[in-house]
# Entry
Amino acid sequence: MWKFEHTLEAELTCEQVWSIWTDVNNWSTWDPSVAWAKLVGKFEVGSTFILKPKDGPKVHSVIRQCKPCEGFTNSARLPLCELVFDHRVIEVDGRVKITHGASLTGLTEFIFRRVIGRQIERDIPVAMASLIERVRSMKRETVSQP
# Structure
């Protein structure tokens, strides 16, 4: 099994992070590795979304776990392998700790670790920093509006 996890802290609220995560159709506005994403249905367990990475084929993913303002897990089937993304947020004293992880399991994990694992390890920290900046810019836009 291959696994990668990255955590950042920021002066945000869980609700702010959750609103960005659940707006799947706009993930490409803050995640530079996403060309586009489309949620099918509501953001809840069992729902699916299609994500097109900028450097790869589109992927169909299923939301496996979903707890508002806490986190969600989604998974995608690859040939003889499963790719799972885990997103968690915890708020403490006006700050949040955001953790984004990915794992690969299955017979072909060793192949996909080399094909996409390294890219995921590069993309996740950048996407998390971009998510934080997106929330901050939304806060600035809200403050500057009359």
In short: Residues 51 and 60 are 7 Å apart (CA to CA). The domain at 2-144 is CATH 3.30.530.20 (Alpha-D-Glucose-1,6-Bisphosphate; Chain A, domain 4). The helical segments are 14-22, 109-144.
